[in-house]
């Protein structure tokens, strides 16, 4: 991570000001809202190449450390490096250490088929049937499906980066055009897919999580979301070597109010995955449990207004802001830190972590003269984020 350590800063940073294409917009200073004392830290709002983010400035061993803020991460690294250098130059600082001059820039491989979750929220649209593979691992099964069904749009979900890179390589080598890959937790992904669009969802050899069943992909919520995105005759397909996972899923599925389930033991598929080969060599049984969708579902609305309507009295709010995590059934809100903007009335930054327990989101809320908004951009419209936002509104307004 690029950073600079200063012996001293010779000129105070005036805001707003700009140098060499970097704009410094405002400075916010840490505010002690918990009982534990802390060192002063500054957040410097910075814009470069039309991207807005924060730099952190704090004391470190009698020197000053300037680095990018973790929550407002941006890329490429060059942009951060240039901004840090602009700060050093504008403040005529005496540099003790810097890795911003020769920080080697990693060349990103072309990742045409790797998509950000934002892409699925805002831009993804297809007339083709969609099929999804959850936890594709080596990608053997997904590649086989994509090659044999060129008219289907496949989406591969994985959270293991080396597996993603391996699949992207194969997509390139085999010139496959109908797979989109996303690094996202499968339990939360389905929320962003339109109702009744998916033909098949493959869950092959999921991690059994026998000691932590709450981490399993299958749950009542997951099954209901799968049924919503599946079109009539669409299928949710589990293949597992774990008797415990099989029993657990059969119990969940047979508790559905209505449905069609088929079970197979040791069924051969056209392609066998690495895991499957291993289990077969060990003489284990392989179980298939397929749930078929028999009903259409209503569309869900992905548009949600994350704005704050009422004017906020920032200084009043931060005096009574909860320091403890607010935990509700399916979401939480935790205020991490507070900063007040110098020389601007009723203004500051609130750093919060919130949303789903498995995939919490960290963001800043910027309050400028009483008007609050999410810094950089709004949260993704997941059900947990929407509920958390309503709670945050209650706290602030
Ligand atoms: C046991 S491997 C099976 C891989 C592949 N399906 C096969 O049959 O060879 C399980 C895979 O699921 C992925 N995984 C685990 N939890 C996940 C989640 N919540 N969302 C997406 N992928 C997940 C893991 O990274 C791992 O690659």
From TrEMBL:
<dbReference type="InterPro" id="IPR003358">
    <property type="entry name" value="tRNA_(Gua-N-7)_MeTrfase_Trmb"/>
</dbReference>
<dbReference type="InterPro" id="IPR029063">
    <property type="entry name" value="SAM-dependent_MTases_sf"/>
</dbReference>
<dbReference type="GO" id="GO:0043527">
    <property type="term" value="C:tRNA methyltransferase complex"/>
</dbReference>
<comment type="function">
    <text>Catalyzes the formation of N(7)-methylguanine at position 46 (m7G46) in tRNA.</text>
</comment>
<comment type="similarity">
    <text>Belongs to the class I-like SAM-binding methyltransferase superfamily. TrmB family.</text>
</comment>
<feature type="binding site">
    <location>
        <position position="133"/>
    </location>
    <ligand>
        <name>S-adenosyl-L-methionine</name>
    </ligand>
</feature>
<comment type="pathway">
    <text>tRNA modification; N(7)-methylguanine-tRNA biosynthesis.</text>
</comment>
<keyword id="KW-0819">tRNA processing</keyword>
<feature type="binding site">
    <location>
        <position position="185"/>
    </location>
    <ligand>
        <name>S-adenosyl-L-methionine</name>
    </ligand>
</feature>
<feature type="binding site">
    <location>
        <position position="211"/>
    </location>
    <ligand>
        <name>substrate</name>
    </ligand>
</feature>
<dbReference type="GO" id="GO:0008176">
    <property type="term" value="F:tRNA (guanine(46)-N7)-methyltransferase activity"/>
</dbReference>
<protein>
    <recommendedName>
        <fullName>tRNA (guanine-N(7)-)-methyltransferase</fullName>
        <ecNumber>2.1.1.33</ecNumber>
    </recommendedName>
</protein>
<keyword id="KW-0949">S-adenosyl-L-methionine</keyword>
<dbReference type="Pfam" id="PF02390">
    <property type="entry name" value="Methyltransf_4"/>
</dbReference>
<keyword id="KW-0808">Transferase</keyword>
<feature type="binding site">
    <location>
        <position position="158"/>
    </location>
    <ligand>
        <name>S-adenosyl-L-methionine</name>
    </ligand>
</feature>
<dbReference type="InterPro" id="IPR055361">
    <property type="entry name" value="tRNA_methyltr_TrmB_bact"/>
</dbReference>
<keyword id="KW-0489">Methyltransferase</keyword>
<feature type="binding site">
    <location>
        <position position="241"/>
    </location>
    <ligand>
        <name>substrate</name>
    </ligand>
</feature>
